[in-house]
Structures
1.
Amino acid sequence: MHFQVPQFVDVEDKIVGPFSLKQFLYIGAAVGISMLLFFIVKLWLWFILSIFIISGGVTLAMVKINGQPVIKIIMSAAGFYWRPQTYVWQQKKEKSAQGAAGGKAEQGLSLENIVAGLSLRKSWQNLQTGTKVLASEGRWHVSRPRERYEVIQKITGERKAVKRVDYR
């Protein structure tokens, strides 16, 4: 038994001539606003405003950027500016003098760690979970970031509490 599979599912149906219903409404609204302005403003001002309004309506109806309609891009941009922002930064790691002097055993690629299998196991665990795994004295310790909040000050002077995210 054969079934027919729809192929053009992303194409809207053409309802009014060569236009879909959305396209027809965008262009119709632009022409309607232009006709309303004809009776309200002077002829030279109506002509200038009509050029902008009708070209805006045609742009909303016909133009696609990267396969997305212009109205969707405008709505995404408005949502981006109206929603609260999340500020993310990376904390700088500082080497301590005690760690360089040998106060703590090195967990990197050393002959002892390679022979014991610690460096490969640690690297594999870091790759799988995205967390730091430390092997010290035969015990495994997984360090996970804690959730912290900080107060930032925007350029406008507004103070805001934001969640701090450290990527290590």
2.
Amino acid sequence: MPSGYRQLTELRGVLARARELSLRTLIFDVEPLVAWWDTSQQALDEGIAGLLAQLDQIPEARVVVFATNSARRPSAVPSVPGVRVSYLASAGKPLRTAPYQGLPRPGAVIGDQVPTDGLLAYRLGFTFLHWDPRLAGVPPGPRLMHLLGRLARPLFFRKDGS
């Protein structure tokens, strides 16, 4: 199944696109979309709660997964009526896909990195909503991954968004 691609710079644009696509599954990258790299436990918990508070904008959503390749975990995974919410630490994106098998379609991976989030979307046959704002203070590792992603994107996603 071909993967779609959309580059967005604001969270409200990501949520609007998710609504337009009637997404049933949303897989959110944690850093930096939910919480900035190396921030506090409180920042992570508040980021998850804040994002889930906006979920009413996507009425078709049935599953939300927060996925990070880091080992950090929230204090608790909040519940949302009618939506299965889970958190996957040390996710192994894009290599590990087993945790995402059987999730309702259509789905999307929302994240900032083509080499991890984009390739996970591609492997799952999900849309990649590439959250790509101009960010200051990005650590060297993610900055390098972003540059690699600029080179890799044309290999997996066409300019017309498919």
